[in-house]
Every structure is written in C-alpha cells, then in structure tokens.
Fold each of these.
Amino acid sequence: ILEEARAQIGVCAQKESLDALRIKYLGRKGVVQDLMGRIPTLSAEERRSFGAGVNELKKNLEALFTEKETGLAAAAAGAAKDFVDITLPGKTPLSGRLHLLSQVEGEICGAFSRLGFRVFKGPEAETEFHNFEALNIPLDHPSRDAFDTFYLRPFDVSRSGFSGREKKLLRSHTSPAQIRALKTCPPPMAVVVPGRVYRPDAVDASHSFMFHQVEGIAVDKGIRFSDLKGVLIAFAKEMFGAETRMRFRPSFFPFTEPSAEVDISCFACKGQGCSVCKKSGWLEILGCGMVHPHVFKSAGLDEKKWRGFAFGMGVERVAMLKYGVNDIRLFFENDIRFLEQF
Ligand code: PHE
C-alpha cells in the first residue's frame, strides 16, 4: 500500500489531486480507516502486530503527503514570482523635450531662415571693441559703465602683446555679432544670430542678468527701410498670426540710423486693449534700423557701396507674450511642472 501511494503522490502536480489522494488514503472512509475497522475481527495476538503495522503505515503516509505539499507550495511561489501579466497597462517612460526658450528661439530663427537668413553665432565672452566701439557706442555711453556690463578680469595687456581692444566682457547684446558676421560672410548677406546676453540687472519678474536675443542683419546694394518693414511684418505674421499689425516708432541706437522700435498689435485683444498690452493695444517686441556707416567701416566694408538693416529682439519677451508667461524667472528655475507645459 505504501509503495502504491508513494508512486501516486509522486506524479501529483496539483494541490487538488493531492487532496483527493489524501482522502483516498487517510480520509474517514479511506484505506487506513478501512484497515483499522478490521482490527476488532482479529485475534488478540494478531491485533497487536496488525495494529502496529497500520499505525506505521499511517505515519509514513502522513509524512509523504506533508513532504509533497511543501514541494507543491514552493513550486507555486516560484511560478508566481516569474509571472508576467501582459494585460497590465505599460509604464510610459518620461520623454524629454526642448526648453521653451529653445523652442521659441527655433521658431524665430526658422521664420527668418524661410525668408533667406542663415544662422550665425558669435562668442558670449566678447571684446570691448566688438561690443561697443565697432558699433559706434561712444566711450562715455552709460552702458559701458561697470555697473551696466560684466567686465572680465583684465589680463596684463602689455605683456600679452594684445592691444587694449582685446579687453573682454560678457556681451550685453548680440549686436557685436553684426561685425563678426560682416567679416565672415561678405555681402550680399543676411544672417540671424541667436544667443545669450548679460546685464547686471537686479532680478525681478521682468529682469534677469542673463537672457537671450536674436539679432538680424541683411546687407546688399540698395537695401531700403521698406525691406526692413517687409521682413519684420512677414516675421510677425508667422510668429503671432496672420492678422497681426505692426507699428514703427522712431527711436535711437548708436549703430543704426534711422532707428525704430517696433510694436505688434496685441494678439490677445486684437488691439482693443487688455491686461496683456496694458490697455494700449500694442506690444513692443524689438529694436531695429538701417546699419550705420560706422558699422560698415568697423567691419572693413565700403560704407558708400553697401546698405543694410539690422534688428534685435529678446527671446524671453517673445516667449512670454506668445505663451502667456508672466515671470521671466520661471524660465531659469527649471521647475519641471512649468517646463512640461510646453
Ligand atoms: N542691440 C539692441 C538692444 O540690445 C537691439 C538692436 C539690434 C537695435 C539691432 C537695433 C538694431 O537693445
């Protein structure tokens, strides 16, 4: 009986079939009980050895069942651990994206590149010459004051063999790249220059000591102010919508003549006056003008032969207007809850 049971238990793969076997052998109407039932019919000496045998059998059977049960439980636990539920929804990996400022810089440069402009880059650590003199910004101009510009520690000019023109600073605008672009790409040329600029302003909702600009310059024979207007209007319509109107206000920059500041009609209220445009209906977006003869001279070009226009705009300002961002600091805090909205 024990050997037969051992064989049957051995091939058992499921708890249910093991339970059935247990009932067959150890149950109330099982094999062992049946043998016990025969004991009263036996003679006194037979009873003793028979009874001992049945007890032995019962103990052995119980041991076999317990051992098998433990084995089955362990196998089931192992299977559960390796089990993959392919019906569960997957975990979506977080995908990265460009920072809003990079997106807007790309939109601006993209719009101008479709108008024929190439992208040009200039250094952030710029010479004082390129940032000021070459752009016709006089020595006593307030923006040259140490409080308006980050000067880099001057090195010993006399020993290095460089002239005083090599004194460096963090560029306060992207306009010095006009000079570099004119030298690198002889006219006729048209480039936009995206990049960082630095001014030691106290940080608040609308000021940052570092921000981004996109500069533009186009030079050819016979370029006129109307070319500047046409290019900027095409840009504004692409950037802010086809109904956008533009307003040129006379202004002054040392490196353009004549100069203008440009407003676009408020896209939020269509020029009716709202909180975005402080009820004026207009939003200032850039400065521009016709390239000053002094700038051509600085770049080694014949100022009688060439005409050009230039413009410069703040990327943060465009992004704040277009995407309704009300604090410039949000761009630089890198709070993921802000960044992932764009
Ligand atoms: N550089 C000027 C500024 O930072 C903007 C500008 C660029 C104006 C080119 C005219 C022409 O304010």
Amino acid sequence: SCESQEGTSENVESDNRYYLNEPLITDNFTADPSAHVFDGRLYIYPSHDVESVVEEDDSGAHFNMRDYHVYSMAEVGGEVVDHGKVLDVDDVPWAKRQMWAPDAAKKDGKYYLYFPAKDHDDIFRLGVAVADSPEGPFTPQPEPMEGSYSIDPAVFEDADGQHYIYWGGIWGGQLQKWRTGEYVSTSSNPYADEPAGDKPAIAPKVAKLSDDMLQFDEEPRDVKIIDKDGNPILAGDHEKRFFEAAWVHHYNDKYYFSYSTGDTHNIAYAIGDSPYGPFTYQGVVLKPVEGWTNHHSIAEFDGQWYIFYHDTELSGKTHLRNIKMAELNHRPDGTIETIDPQRR
Ligand code: FUB
C-alpha cells in the first residue's frame, strides 16, 4: 500500500509529534506536573504520590502525600534528573497532611515553591517555601499565606514581571466551603455546598503576588469563565465548569486559562485579554486520562509548546500517578488542538 502518500505520512507524523506518552519518572509516583523553564533548563514541580493506609473517599483523603521532589532536564527526551526531596510536611509548622499540587516561580534570583496542604484543623491553606536554586531545597514560611484557602496554586509571570497566583478546587479542594468568605461546612458530603445547577459555577481565584512573592497583594478576585455570549458557565454544566488545576499561559497577546473539569475529567481552556480575565470558554485541551484526576501545565521550551500531565499507566491506581509530556499546538486562530492521551 501507499504508506508514503501525503495524507498518510501527515497522520503518522502527527502521532509522533503529539504523543511522547511515556512516563517521565518510573521510580517514584508523580502527578500534577507544573513545568517552568528556569535559566534555560526545564524544571518540573510535581506532587509526589504515595501508597497510604487512608481509604479512598470523595474528598480525596487517599491523596495523602507528604513531600515534594523536583525534576529537571536539559532537553526534551534527555535524562530526567531527580533533585531529591526538597520539602517535607514535617518541616512545615502549619501543615498537617495532604501536600497536593504545587507550582514554582522565580524572581530576582530566588525561587518560590507554592503548595497546598491541610492545616491542623484540616482546612486547606496555601504555603510558600523559598530557595536560592530552582532545584531547592526549599525553606518554608512558618505560616500559610495570609487569607489563603483551598488548593492547586499556579503562579503566572506576566510580560511586565508582575506575578499572579491562581488557585482553587471544589469538592475535596474545599473551595465550595468559602462562598461566604468564611469557611462554612454544612455537611460532610464534599459536594453539598455547591450552587444550584442553574447558578454560575464557583469561580477559581486570582490575586497579584506581593513584591516579596510571599503574600497576596490584593483582595482575591473571582476568575470569570464565560461562554461566547458572555454568560457565566453554570454550576450544572459539569463538562465545562471549573473544578481544579488552574494554569495560565500567554500566547500571541492572549491569556489562556486552563483547568480540570473534575468529574468529567477534561482539561478545558478559556481565552482572555487580561491576566484577570474574563476568560471565554473555547474547548478541551486534553481529553480524559487513565485515572480519575486530570491535571496539567503548559509551557514553551526551545520554541515548542508542551503539555505536562499525568495518568495511572504504571500503577492502575487513581492515587498513584506518573507524569508525562506531549507536544501542544496552537492553531493560527489561537485555539489549541485537542490532545487525546488515550489514543495510541
Ligand atoms: O494530587 C492531588 C490533587 O488531585 C490535586 O491537587 C488535584 O488537582 C488532583 O490532581
């Protein structure tokens, strides 16, 4: 047959291009990869999944992680270096358990690790730890960020050098319990405090970071995600509403807000003209992976954009994940080509 015909070879090429599809790390379980290029090298700040005696429940108690490792590589496909344990829950005075999805940022030669953990009252807060190198080790601040709550911090540096922090996650991530501005839990059912289906979905949060990178520099704002008619995505629209795993990247003068839709397992994205949004819903970046959670980051390295994500190929268990990366492409109109991680 005519394997070399134009159409066929295009398909083959795009398969190779899109799906690197190999676990990047095989001697630790890793998840929620936040990737950044610092000083010309690609660094990944993931969660470190561990087997735990805690039973699975709807609030994610089985995601019982205790520390973070940092990984890096000089080039895509090259050796992935494990820089070892860079922060342990026992070294964070305010944190009790569940070191969930982290992110990192660089400013003025210092490196900052942002992470969620449950405090001694089992309320999720956001912490910061500081290092002189992107490899860590990171020294935690003694208190969580003032006024912080919920999970999945993601830090974006705008072209003018200003950093913004995005965060939030519903259900186990507790964002729905903060709708009054205070922590209010009406039920042990993790989804009990969500709005009715015909009301706007709970919004993720954004705030400028202070000059020293350690605090919010303003009252947190809602990140508005709207449809093409300008109406908010509704709480009942589980295919599109924000669940967790916020990430922002900048491409061709537009800001891209991407996130997990949780119980429908997509990474969706929305586009805006400002780091604050509003962001208009566009579609799906990454279809469901193996395992319940879907959590990603997007970064450009050596002129190519990549998505970093995880699945459960190595363990077959939802809470023991392995990170992967694949090429990501923006179309000429700015939309993103959907990636199907289960297509082989
Ligand atoms: O890894 C623990 C939690 O699971 C993350 O914080 C969520 O985004 C989900 O991936």
